[in-house]
Amino acid sequence: MKVISVARNLRSAKNNPFGFIVDSLIKVIVNLVIPIPLAGDVVAKLKGPILGFLASLVILTVMLFVTLVSVFSTVFLTPTGFFQYIYANINDGGVNDEFIQTSVPSQNPFGGSGMSYTAVTAGFMDPAYFIQFGKQHTGIDMVPNSTYYEQSNSYKETGKVIIFATHSGIASTYTDGEGGKTVEILNNTGDVRTKYIHFKNIYIGSGELQAGTPLGEMGGTGKATGEHLHYEIQIKDNGTWKLVNPLSYIQ
Amino acid sequence: MADIKLNALDSKQRKLLQIGVVLILSLFLGLYFFLNRQTVTTTDNNEVYLDGTTLQVFNDTYEFNGYPDKILSHYPYFIYIQGDIPITHVYNLETKEKVAEKQDVLLDYYDGNILYNRKTTFYNDKDLGEFCDFGFIKSETEILCITKKSQNYADNMLISINPETPSLWKQVYQSENILTNVSVIGNTLYIGEINMETKQNYLTIGENTIELSTPVSLIYEMEGKPYFASFKSALNDTLVYYQFDNDTVNLKGRNLITIFK
Prior knowledge:
By secondary structure, chain A is of the alpha+beta class. Chain A is built from eight helices and eleven strands.
Protein backbone atom coordinates (compact mmCIF):
# COMPACT_ATOMS: atom_id res chain seq x y z
CA MET A 1 0.00 0.00 0.00
CA LYS A 2 2.77 2.37 0.95
CA VAL A 3 4.55 1.77 -2.37
CA ILE A 4 1.37 2.57 -4.28
CA SER A 5 0.84 5.71 -2.21
CA VAL A 6 4.40 6.89 -2.88
CA ALA A 7 4.08 6.19 -6.60
CA ARG A 8 0.79 8.14 -6.70
CA ASN A 9 2.41 11.04 -4.92
CA LEU A 10 5.38 11.04 -7.30
CA ARG A 11 3.09 11.04 -10.31
CA SER A 12 1.09 13.87 -8.80
CA ALA A 13 4.30 15.83 -8.12
CA LYS A 14 5.43 15.33 -11.71
CA ASN A 15 2.11 16.29 -13.35
CA ASN A 16 1.30 19.25 -11.13
CA PRO A 17 4.25 20.22 -8.92
CA PHE A 18 2.69 23.46 -7.62
CA GLY A 19 -0.60 21.74 -6.73
CA PHE A 20 1.33 18.94 -5.07
CA ILE A 21 3.28 21.38 -2.86
CA VAL A 22 0.13 23.26 -1.91
CA ASP A 23 -1.74 20.10 -1.10
CA SER A 24 1.16 18.82 0.97
CA LEU A 25 1.31 22.05 2.97
CA ILE A 26 -2.42 21.95 3.60
CA LYS A 27 -2.12 18.36 4.75
CA VAL A 28 0.53 19.39 7.23
CA ILE A 29 -1.65 22.21 8.54
CA VAL A 30 -4.70 20.00 8.84
CA ASN A 31 -2.85 17.22 10.58
CA LEU A 32 -0.77 19.29 12.91
CA VAL A 33 -2.92 22.23 13.82
CA ILE A 34 -6.60 21.52 13.22
CA PRO A 35 -7.96 18.62 15.23
CA ILE A 36 -11.64 19.40 14.59
CA PRO A 37 -13.57 17.16 12.19
CA LEU A 38 -14.83 18.78 8.96
CA ALA A 39 -12.26 21.48 9.31
CA GLY A 40 -10.47 19.85 6.42
CA ASP A 41 -13.17 21.09 4.04
CA VAL A 42 -12.86 24.57 5.38
CA VAL A 43 -9.11 24.39 5.08
CA ALA A 44 -9.36 23.17 1.51
CA LYS A 45 -11.50 26.18 0.63
CA LEU A 46 -9.04 28.52 2.30
CA LYS A 47 -6.11 27.27 0.28
CA GLY A 48 -5.11 30.77 -0.87
CA PRO A 49 -4.99 32.47 2.54
CA ILE A 50 -3.23 29.50 4.07
CA LEU A 51 -0.60 29.59 1.38
CA GLY A 52 -0.18 33.33 1.92
CA PHE A 53 0.15 32.81 5.66
CA LEU A 54 2.78 30.12 5.17
CA ALA A 55 4.71 32.26 2.69
CA SER A 56 4.66 35.20 5.15
CA LEU A 57 5.84 32.89 7.88
CA VAL A 58 8.74 31.73 5.74
CA ILE A 59 9.70 35.31 4.81
CA LEU A 60 9.50 36.41 8.44
CA THR A 61 11.63 33.48 9.54
CA VAL A 62 14.25 34.29 6.91
CA MET A 63 14.28 37.97 7.91
CA LEU A 64 14.53 37.09 11.58
CA PHE A 65 17.43 34.78 10.82
CA VAL A 66 19.22 37.46 8.75
CA THR A 67 18.66 40.05 11.50
CA LEU A 68 19.97 37.77 14.21
CA VAL A 69 23.01 36.83 12.15
CA SER A 70 23.72 40.54 11.44
CA VAL A 71 23.36 41.52 15.10
CA PHE A 72 25.52 38.74 16.46
CA SER A 73 28.16 38.95 13.74
CA THR A 74 28.70 42.69 14.43
CA VAL A 75 30.63 41.76 17.54
CA PHE A 76 33.15 39.85 15.44
CA LEU A 77 33.58 42.57 12.81
CA THR A 78 36.71 44.18 14.24
CA PRO A 79 37.80 47.40 12.54
CA THR A 80 40.62 45.73 10.68
CA GLY A 81 41.99 48.19 8.20
CA PHE A 82 39.71 50.91 9.52
CA PHE A 83 42.65 53.08 10.39
CA GLN A 84 43.84 52.85 6.81
CA TYR A 85 40.30 53.67 5.68
CA ILE A 86 40.25 56.81 7.79
CA TYR A 87 43.61 57.83 6.44
CA ALA A 88 42.58 57.13 2.87
CA ASN A 89 39.41 59.16 3.23
CA ILE A 90 40.66 62.09 5.21
CA ASN A 91 44.07 62.68 3.73
CA ASP A 92 46.65 60.63 1.93
CA GLY A 93 49.30 61.74 4.40
CA GLY A 94 47.27 60.60 7.42
CA VAL A 95 46.72 64.11 8.71
CA ASN A 96 43.47 66.09 8.67
CA ASP A 97 44.34 69.15 6.60
CA GLU A 98 41.88 71.31 8.59
CA PHE A 99 44.59 71.38 11.26
CA ILE A 100 47.56 73.68 11.16
CA GLN A 101 50.96 72.29 12.13
CA THR A 102 51.84 73.61 15.56
CA SER A 103 53.34 72.41 18.83
CA VAL A 104 50.84 74.51 20.81
CA PRO A 105 47.44 72.80 21.40
CA SER A 106 45.43 75.65 19.93
CA GLN A 107 42.92 73.52 18.02
CA ASN A 108 39.79 71.63 18.93
CA PRO A 109 40.34 67.84 19.03
CA PHE A 110 37.06 67.40 17.11
CA GLY A 111 38.23 69.78 14.38
CA GLY A 112 36.33 72.84 13.18
CA SER A 113 36.86 76.42 14.14
CA GLY A 114 37.26 77.13 17.85
CA MET A 115 34.49 75.43 19.81
CA SER A 116 32.00 75.47 16.93
CA TYR A 117 31.82 71.65 16.75
CA THR A 118 31.47 70.90 20.44
CA ALA A 119 29.31 71.25 23.52
CA VAL A 120 31.00 71.28 26.92
CA THR A 121 29.34 68.97 29.43
CA ALA A 122 31.77 69.81 32.23
CA GLY A 123 34.21 72.70 32.30
CA PHE A 124 37.64 72.88 33.87
CA MET A 125 37.24 72.64 37.67
CA ASP A 126 33.49 72.66 37.16
CA PRO A 127 31.61 73.09 40.48
CA ALA A 128 28.76 70.81 39.35
CA TYR A 129 31.34 68.08 38.64
CA PHE A 130 32.77 68.54 42.15
CA ILE A 131 29.30 68.10 43.68
CA GLN A 132 28.73 64.95 41.64
CA PHE A 133 32.08 63.23 42.14
CA GLY A 134 33.63 64.98 45.15
CA LYS A 135 36.82 65.79 43.23
CA GLN A 136 38.13 68.43 40.86
CA HIS A 137 37.60 68.16 37.14
CA THR A 138 41.05 68.34 35.62
CA GLY A 139 40.09 69.01 32.01
CA ILE A 140 37.01 69.66 29.90
CA ASP A 141 34.44 67.08 28.83
CA MET A 142 33.30 67.57 25.28
CA VAL A 143 30.73 66.00 22.98
CA PRO A 144 29.95 66.83 19.35
CA ASN A 145 27.05 69.24 18.79
CA SER A 146 24.64 69.45 15.87
CA THR A 147 27.06 71.64 13.84
CA TYR A 148 29.64 68.87 14.05
CA TYR A 149 27.24 66.26 12.69
CA GLU A 150 26.22 68.62 9.88
CA GLN A 151 29.66 69.89 8.87
CA SER A 152 32.49 67.64 10.00
CA ASN A 153 34.14 66.01 7.00
CA SER A 154 35.62 63.20 9.05
CA TYR A 155 32.17 62.33 10.44
CA LYS A 156 30.55 62.54 7.00
CA GLU A 157 33.18 60.26 5.51
CA THR A 158 33.44 57.69 8.28
CA GLY A 159 30.26 57.92 10.33
CA LYS A 160 32.52 57.90 13.40
CA VAL A 161 33.38 60.63 15.88
CA ILE A 162 37.13 60.86 15.34
CA ILE A 163 39.43 62.67 17.75
CA PHE A 164 42.49 64.40 16.29
CA ALA A 165 45.84 65.43 17.72
CA THR A 166 45.67 69.14 18.51
CA HIS A 167 49.43 69.63 18.16
CA SER A 168 52.51 67.81 16.95
CA GLY A 169 54.75 65.82 19.28
CA ILE A 170 55.43 62.36 20.63
CA ALA A 171 52.44 60.20 21.45
CA SER A 172 52.07 57.45 23.99
CA THR A 173 49.01 55.27 24.52
CA TYR A 174 47.83 53.26 27.49
CA THR A 175 44.72 51.97 29.23
CA ASP A 176 43.85 52.39 32.88
CA GLY A 177 40.79 51.82 35.06
CA GLU A 178 40.04 55.49 35.54
CA GLY A 179 40.49 56.99 32.08
CA GLY A 180 40.12 53.87 29.95
CA LYS A 181 41.86 54.04 26.58
CA THR A 182 44.11 57.10 26.72
CA VAL A 183 46.47 59.01 24.43
CA GLU A 184 49.07 61.47 25.70
CA ILE A 185 51.07 63.76 23.43
CA LEU A 186 54.17 65.61 24.59
CA ASN A 187 55.05 68.54 22.34
CA ASN A 188 58.41 68.84 20.63
CA THR A 189 59.78 71.37 23.11
CA GLY A 190 58.80 69.17 26.07
CA ASP A 191 56.84 71.82 27.95
CA VAL A 192 53.23 71.09 26.97
CA ARG A 193 51.39 67.80 27.03
CA THR A 194 47.81 66.95 26.13
CA LYS A 195 45.75 64.04 27.35
CA TYR A 196 42.78 62.49 25.51
CA ILE A 197 40.71 60.07 27.57
CA HIS A 198 37.90 57.46 27.22
CA PHE A 199 38.53 56.38 23.59
CA LYS A 200 36.49 53.54 22.16
CA ASN A 201 39.32 52.61 19.80
CA ILE A 202 42.82 54.03 19.51
CA TYR A 203 44.20 54.14 15.98
CA ILE A 204 47.82 54.99 16.71
CA GLY A 205 50.78 53.45 18.41
CA SER A 206 53.44 55.29 20.36
CA GLY A 207 55.72 57.63 18.41
CA GLU A 208 55.96 60.94 16.65
CA LEU A 209 52.92 62.47 15.02
CA GLN A 210 51.63 65.71 13.54
CA ALA A 211 48.70 67.94 14.48
CA GLY A 212 45.53 66.61 12.85
CA THR A 213 46.52 62.94 13.07
CA PRO A 214 43.40 60.84 13.84
CA LEU A 215 44.00 59.40 17.30
CA GLY A 216 40.92 57.26 17.69
CA GLU A 217 37.22 57.17 18.15
CA MET A 218 35.33 58.91 20.97
CA GLY A 219 34.06 56.43 23.55
CA GLY A 220 33.17 55.77 27.14
CA THR A 221 35.94 53.47 28.39
CA GLY A 222 37.21 53.72 31.97
CA LYS A 223 35.05 55.41 34.57
CA ALA A 224 33.07 57.44 32.05
CA THR A 225 29.39 58.20 32.41
CA GLY A 226 28.41 58.23 28.76
CA GLU A 227 30.54 58.67 25.65
CA HIS A 228 32.58 61.86 25.57
CA LEU A 229 36.12 63.14 25.26
CA HIS A 230 37.93 64.26 28.39
CA TYR A 231 40.59 66.65 27.13
CA GLU A 232 43.35 67.89 29.37
CA ILE A 233 46.32 70.24 28.92
CA GLN A 234 49.31 70.42 31.25
CA ILE A 235 52.20 72.85 31.03
CA LYS A 236 55.60 72.58 32.64
CA ASP A 237 56.06 75.32 35.21
CA ASN A 238 59.45 75.36 37.02
CA GLY A 239 59.89 71.65 36.35
CA THR A 240 56.38 70.71 37.58
CA TRP A 241 53.46 69.74 35.39
CA LYS A 242 50.54 72.07 36.01
CA LEU A 243 46.94 71.68 34.82
CA VAL A 244 45.51 74.53 32.78
CA ASN A 245 42.09 75.29 31.34
CA PRO A 246 42.03 73.90 27.77
CA LEU A 247 39.44 76.50 26.75
CA SER A 248 42.03 79.23 27.11
CA TYR A 249 44.13 77.45 24.44
CA ILE A 250 41.50 76.57 21.85
CA GLN A 251 41.36 79.31 19.22
CA MET B 1 -6.40 18.20 -5.74
CA ALA B 2 -5.77 15.17 -3.53
CA ASP B 3 -8.20 14.34 -0.75
CA ILE B 4 -7.42 15.86 2.57
CA LYS B 5 -7.04 13.23 5.24
CA LEU B 6 -7.54 14.17 8.86
CA ASN B 7 -5.27 12.93 11.60
CA ALA B 8 -6.11 9.46 12.76
CA LEU B 9 -7.26 10.20 16.28
CA ASP B 10 -9.93 8.35 18.20
CA SER B 11 -12.78 10.38 19.70
CA LYS B 12 -11.09 10.59 23.13
CA GLN B 13 -7.82 11.90 21.74
CA ARG B 14 -9.67 14.34 19.51
CA LYS B 15 -11.64 15.67 22.49
CA LEU B 16 -8.39 16.18 24.44
CA LEU B 17 -6.92 18.10 21.53
CA GLN B 18 -10.04 20.22 21.21
CA ILE B 19 -9.91 21.07 24.93
CA GLY B 20 -6.21 21.93 24.54
CA VAL B 21 -6.89 24.25 21.63
CA VAL B 22 -9.77 25.94 23.51
CA LEU B 23 -7.53 26.42 26.57
CA ILE B 24 -4.69 27.96 24.55
CA LEU B 25 -7.13 30.26 22.73
CA SER B 26 -8.72 31.32 26.04
CA LEU B 27 -5.30 32.03 27.54
CA PHE B 28 -4.26 34.07 24.53
CA LEU B 29 -7.51 36.07 24.43
CA GLY B 30 -7.45 36.62 28.21
CA LEU B 31 -3.88 37.91 28.07
CA TYR B 32 -4.66 40.12 25.10
CA PHE B 33 -7.63 41.78 26.80
CA PHE B 34 -5.71 42.15 30.08
CA LEU B 35 -2.79 43.93 28.41
CA ASN B 36 -5.12 46.01 26.28
CA ARG B 37 -7.04 47.13 29.38
CA GLN B 38 -3.80 48.18 31.07
CA THR B 39 -2.88 50.41 28.14
CA VAL B 40 -6.30 51.99 28.05
CA THR B 41 -6.39 52.74 31.79
CA THR B 42 -3.05 54.66 31.76
CA THR B 43 -3.89 58.12 33.08
CA ASP B 44 -2.23 61.43 32.29
CA ASN B 45 0.49 62.36 34.75
CA ASN B 46 0.44 65.97 35.92
CA GLU B 47 3.59 65.85 38.02
CA VAL B 48 7.32 66.18 37.59
CA TYR B 49 9.37 64.11 39.98
CA LEU B 50 12.60 62.19 40.36
CA ASP B 51 12.13 58.73 41.85
CA GLY B 52 15.48 57.00 42.18
CA THR B 53 16.88 57.21 38.68
CA THR B 54 13.48 57.64 37.01
CA LEU B 55 12.71 61.19 35.99
CA GLN B 56 9.02 61.58 35.23
CA VAL B 57 8.12 64.76 33.38
CA PHE B 58 4.36 64.63 32.90
CA ASN B 59 3.92 61.64 30.56
CA ASP B 60 7.58 61.45 29.50
CA THR B 61 9.94 59.15 31.35
CA TYR B 62 13.73 59.51 31.36
CA GLU B 63 16.58 57.70 33.04
CA PHE B 64 18.55 60.17 35.16
CA ASN B 65 21.90 59.08 36.55
CA GLY B 66 23.44 62.44 37.30
CA TYR B 67 26.43 63.75 35.36
CA PRO B 68 26.62 64.28 32.38
CA ASP B 69 22.83 64.64 32.56
CA LYS B 70 21.53 67.74 34.31
CA ILE B 71 18.25 68.99 35.69
CA LEU B 72 17.58 72.73 35.80
CA SER B 73 14.56 74.78 36.67
CA HIS B 74 13.63 78.33 35.77
CA TYR B 75 9.95 78.63 36.53
CA PRO B 76 7.78 78.05 34.58
CA TYR B 77 10.37 76.09 32.62
CA PHE B 78 11.79 72.72 33.55
CA ILE B 79 14.97 71.78 31.73
CA TYR B 80 16.40 68.29 31.37
CA ILE B 81 19.76 67.81 29.65
CA GLN B 82 20.96 64.49 28.30
CA GLY B 83 24.64 65.37 28.24
CA ASP B 84 26.13 62.55 26.23
CA ILE B 85 23.87 63.03 23.18
CA PRO B 86 23.71 66.08 23.79
CA ILE B 87 20.10 67.19 23.87
CA THR B 88 18.16 69.61 26.08
CA HIS B 89 14.44 69.11 26.67
CA VAL B 90 12.48 72.14 27.86
CA TYR B 91 8.99 71.80 29.38
CA ASN B 92 6.58 74.53 30.38
CA LEU B 93 5.26 73.53 33.81
CA GLU B 94 2.15 75.67 33.45
CA THR B 95 1.01 74.34 30.09
CA LYS B 96 2.49 70.89 30.84
CA GLU B 97 3.99 70.73 27.38
CA LYS B 98 7.43 70.29 25.89
CA VAL B 99 8.23 73.70 24.40
CA ALA B 100 11.72 73.19 23.04
CA GLU B 101 14.28 70.54 22.23
CA LYS B 102 17.82 71.73 21.45
CA GLN B 103 20.73 69.61 20.29
CA ASP B 104 23.04 71.29 22.75
CA VAL B 105 23.81 71.63 26.45
CA LEU B 106 21.85 74.66 27.62
CA LEU B 107 22.70 76.58 30.78
CA ASP B 108 19.25 78.15 30.92
CA TYR B 109 16.09 78.75 28.90
CA TYR B 110 13.50 81.44 29.38
CA ASP B 111 10.71 82.56 27.02
CA GLY B 112 12.52 81.25 23.95
CA ASN B 113 15.86 82.79 24.94
CA ILE B 114 18.75 80.40 25.48
CA LEU B 115 22.06 80.48 27.31
CA TYR B 116 24.78 78.05 26.22
CA ASN B 117 28.55 77.58 26.18
CA ARG B 118 31.11 77.55 23.43
CA LYS B 119 34.58 78.96 24.17
CA THR B 120 32.62 81.59 26.10
CA THR B 121 28.95 81.77 27.02
CA PHE B 122 26.34 82.94 24.53
CA TYR B 123 22.91 84.48 25.15
CA ASN B 124 21.09 83.57 21.93
CA ASP B 125 23.67 84.77 19.37
CA LYS B 126 25.36 87.32 21.65
CA ASP B 127 28.78 86.45 23.00
CA LEU B 128 28.93 87.35 26.70
CA GLY B 129 32.72 87.22 26.68
CA GLU B 130 32.95 85.06 29.84
CA PHE B 131 32.64 81.31 30.37
CA CYS B 132 29.80 80.57 32.81
CA ASP B 133 29.87 77.27 34.68
CA PHE B 134 26.29 78.07 35.65
CA GLY B 135 23.99 80.74 34.25
CA PHE B 136 20.55 82.19 34.86
CA ILE B 137 18.58 84.48 32.54
CA LYS B 138 17.24 87.01 35.04
CA SER B 139 15.87 89.22 32.28
CA GLU B 140 16.66 90.15 28.69
CA THR B 141 19.11 92.72 30.01
CA GLU B 142 20.63 90.76 32.88
CA ILE B 143 22.31 87.37 32.86
CA LEU B 144 23.60 85.95 36.14
CA CYS B 145 26.78 83.97 35.56
CA ILE B 146 28.97 81.90 37.88
CA THR B 147 32.43 82.28 36.40
CA LYS B 148 36.01 81.69 37.49
CA LYS B 149 38.02 84.52 38.95
CA SER B 150 41.02 83.13 37.11
CA GLN B 151 40.94 80.66 34.19
CA ASN B 152 43.12 78.01 35.82
CA TYR B 153 41.72 77.96 39.36
CA ALA B 154 38.48 76.78 40.94
CA ASP B 155 37.71 80.03 42.80
CA ASN B 156 34.67 81.65 41.28
CA MET B 157 32.19 84.48 41.66
CA LEU B 158 28.72 85.53 40.59
CA ILE B 159 28.60 88.28 38.01
CA SER B 160 25.81 90.11 36.21
CA ILE B 161 26.14 90.65 32.46
CA ASN B 162 24.07 92.84 30.20
CA PRO B 163 24.15 91.08 26.79
CA GLU B 164 24.26 94.47 25.07
CA THR B 165 27.36 95.57 27.00
CA PRO B 166 29.03 92.33 28.12
CA SER B 167 32.44 93.84 28.82
CA LEU B 168 30.86 96.00 31.55
CA TRP B 169 29.92 93.04 33.73
CA LYS B 170 29.45 93.63 37.46
CA GLN B 171 30.35 91.38 40.34
CA VAL B 172 27.26 90.45 42.35
CA TYR B 173 28.62 88.04 44.97
CA GLN B 174 31.68 86.09 46.02
CA SER B 175 32.62 84.09 49.08
CA GLU B 176 35.37 81.84 50.43
CA ASN B 177 33.38 78.89 49.05
CA ILE B 178 32.84 77.68 45.54
CA LEU B 179 29.50 78.79 44.11
CA THR B 180 27.64 75.89 42.52
CA ASN B 181 24.31 77.29 41.33
CA VAL B 182 22.10 80.33 41.40
CA SER B 183 18.43 81.13 41.01
CA VAL B 184 16.08 84.04 41.50
CA ILE B 185 12.68 83.25 42.99
CA GLY B 186 10.32 86.09 43.84
CA ASN B 187 13.06 88.73 43.56
CA THR B 188 15.20 86.86 46.10
CA LEU B 189 18.62 85.59 45.08
CA TYR B 190 19.47 81.99 46.06
CA ILE B 191 23.06 80.78 45.73
CA GLY B 192 24.31 77.24 46.40
CA GLU B 193 27.86 76.97 47.78
CA ILE B 194 30.35 74.35 48.88
CA ASN B 195 33.67 74.49 50.71
CA MET B 196 36.04 72.25 48.76
CA GLU B 197 38.26 71.53 51.76
CA THR B 198 35.62 70.66 54.36
CA LYS B 199 32.88 69.73 51.83
CA GLN B 200 30.44 71.74 53.95
CA ASN B 201 27.43 72.93 51.96
CA TYR B 202 25.84 76.34 52.19
CA LEU B 203 22.91 78.25 50.81
CA THR B 204 22.88 82.00 50.59
CA ILE B 205 19.40 83.54 50.58
CA GLY B 206 19.57 87.24 49.94
CA GLU B 207 22.00 88.47 52.59
CA ASN B 208 21.97 85.37 54.82
CA THR B 209 24.07 82.24 54.47
CA ILE B 210 22.97 79.02 56.15
CA GLU B 211 24.71 75.66 56.51
CA LEU B 212 23.18 72.63 54.84
CA SER B 213 23.79 68.92 55.35
CA THR B 214 23.56 68.07 51.64
CA PRO B 215 24.79 69.78 48.46
CA VAL B 216 22.51 72.06 46.49
CA SER B 217 21.91 70.26 43.19
CA LEU B 218 18.79 72.15 42.13
CA ILE B 219 17.04 75.32 43.30
CA TYR B 220 13.46 75.51 42.10
CA GLU B 221 10.04 77.00 42.60
CA MET B 222 6.91 74.97 43.32
CA GLU B 223 3.49 76.39 44.15
CA GLY B 224 5.09 79.81 44.53
CA LYS B 225 7.56 78.63 47.20
CA PRO B 226 11.31 78.09 46.93
CA TYR B 227 12.72 74.57 47.23
CA PHE B 228 16.07 72.93 46.81
CA ALA B 229 17.00 69.34 46.03
CA SER B 230 20.11 67.23 46.49
CA PHE B 231 20.69 64.46 43.99
CA LYS B 232 22.62 61.29 44.67
CA SER B 233 26.35 61.85 44.29
CA ALA B 234 29.71 61.11 45.85
CA LEU B 235 28.82 63.69 48.52
CA ASN B 236 25.23 62.63 49.09
CA ASP B 237 23.83 59.09 49.22
CA THR B 238 20.09 59.88 49.26
CA LEU B 239 17.75 61.87 47.07
CA VAL B 240 16.31 64.57 49.28
CA TYR B 241 14.44 67.85 48.91
CA TYR B 242 13.66 70.78 51.18
CA GLN B 243 11.47 73.83 51.25
CA PHE B 244 12.77 77.23 52.30
CA ASP B 245 10.58 79.02 54.79
CA ASN B 246 11.99 82.44 55.66
CA ASP B 247 15.46 81.54 56.95
CA THR B 248 14.73 77.92 57.79
CA VAL B 249 14.95 74.84 55.65
CA ASN B 250 12.32 72.13 56.07
CA LEU B 251 12.81 68.58 54.88
CA LYS B 252 9.97 67.65 52.54
CA GLY B 253 10.93 64.20 51.30
CA ARG B 254 13.54 61.54 50.78
CA ASN B 255 14.18 59.12 47.90
CA LEU B 256 11.60 60.88 45.74
CA ILE B 257 11.93 64.52 44.79
CA THR B 258 8.76 66.31 43.73
CA ILE B 259 9.64 69.11 41.34
CA PHE B 260 6.15 70.04 40.21
CA LYS B 261 2.67 68.96 41.31
